Amino acid sequence: MPTSDTIDRPASAVRRSAPGTIAALTATEGLAALAQGSLTCEAWARACLDRIDERNAGVQAWVRVDADGALARAREWDRHGRRRLLDGVPLGIKDTIDTADMPTELGDPEIFPGRQPDADAPVVTQAHALGFNVLGKNTVSRHAIMLPGPARNPHDLSRTPAASSAGSAAAVADFMTPLSIGTQTAGSILRPSAFCGAVGFKPTLDAIPYVGIRRYSRVLDVIGPITRSVDDAALFMRAFTGDPRYDATLPLRTDFRAGVWRPKDWADAEPCMRESFEANLRALSAAGVTVKELEMPAAFDTMGEAQDVIMAYDLAREYAAIKRDHAALCDPGLIDYLTMGEGVSAADYAGALDSADACRRAFYDAAREVDAVVMPSTLGEAPPASSTGSSAFIRIWSLLHNPSITLPVARGPHGLPLGFQMVGFVKEDARLLYWARCAERILGSTAHRA
């Protein structure tokens, strides 16, 4: 399996500096250290802020940092005691999510310069109530869609961190924060996480209310965490949903069943991704996991196009005022996509929704004998920064509403992360995260390697 220990890095991929011990902590590890008294909230916040100071000029993962506020909150917890489980855990928030105490420019600083919401999005209100220490706002790709933005891949600044939640994934993967709140409509949690080397989890639609956030498509938009461990994803989901089934203390097993699906885009995957995926399957099988090839209905290979029809149709309507009033400030790629969406008929839109409904029902029959479906997260390593890569292996699950997760399990020939994707059943998110914890134990993780 390709790893960063077995490749020669090209000159463009200068090895980044290793993080300090505290900045490298996951949320779960940090909470344990706080409970033991070996860590203070101020030291944790300061370590993350120092890493931001050191690295953000190149990675550009943050558009706004509230260093003074984060340190003041941390000192208060240290002085008066932590009363809530998550008091002091550093957190980043994607800059499409409204914050009343910081501007939210929605990935469009030219169109919405200094935009200041009157109220927090409910997920932000909840984050504060849970005790998270919000460090700032994470960079979004241009127009908050699949166009390249200012953020860069922390492993190689000439490479893309993907689109939309790009800054969130880059910040977490570069040890600037253990957690960030992202959103996904096609692949904007999993693809940035896979390219940057983080754990990205997309829950079932509406697992966390999507309110006070830039809207793309009501039937596709979801909120989810970007982390450096599956335990942290479970911690996040338990906190924000209140569902005790997200239990990171359950003993791990190796007797689960993984269903392998190689969709039509499998042939386009880079050799390093195919080799890594096959090696992961062998490792799972050797550990006792039952690995079974799946035959998905032919309609599943049309779901990528159906997702694009729905997203283009909805985005053309959500962004109509921007195109009308700010066309001169819009990227030509956005204008082209909105024009395409305007040309989608209501009948075609309804047909795509109907096809997705049929595939949701068919999934239960096709995958009834497995615990999770597995496939690559992306076609390969992160491409150059002029592109945001492909979500060919990801976007179907946004459309079908299945929970999905990417695990950073290997490095490719350029030292860039490769992800392993696991997909669960709708509304069985906690179950998927449990099987992902089991797989992470077997396959290992590269999220902690600089």
Structure characterization notes:
With 450 residues, the chain is α/β, with parallel strands linked by helices. It folds into two domains: 346 residues, Amidase signature (AS) enzymes (Alpha-Beta Complex); 68 residues. The protein has 14 helices and eleven strands. Strands 1-3-2-4-6-5-10-11-9-7-8 form an eleven-stranded mixed beta sheet, sandwiched between helices. Strand 7, helix 8 and strand 8 form a beta-alpha-beta unit. Helix 2 runs antiparallel to helix 3, helix 7 packs antiparallel against helix 14 and helix 9 crosses helix 12. 55% of the residues are buried.
Q: State the CATH topology of the largest domain.
A: Amidase signature (AS) enzymes
Sheet with most strands:
11 strands, mixed
What's the SSE pattern?
A: HHEHEHEHEHEEHEHEHHHHEHEEH
Strand order of the largest sheet: 1-3-2-4-6-5-10-11-9-7-8
Radius of gyration: 21 Å
What is the overall silhouette?
Answer: globular
Please bin the fraction of helical residues. 25-40%
Query: Residue-averaged pLDDT, rounded?
Result: 95
Q: Which architecture of the largest domain does the CATH hierarchy give at level 2?
A: Alpha-Beta Complex
**Strand content range:** 5-15%
> How many domains comprise the coordinates?
2
Q: State the secondary-structure class.
A: alpha/beta
| CATH homologous superfamily label of the largest domain | Amidase signature (AS) domain
Question: Runs with pLDDT <50, length 5+?
Answer: 1-12
Q: Span from first to last CA? A: 18 Å
What CATH first level of the largest domain would be assigned?
Alpha Beta
Number of helices: 14
In terms of quaternary structure, what is this?
A: single chain
* Topology, number of strands: 11
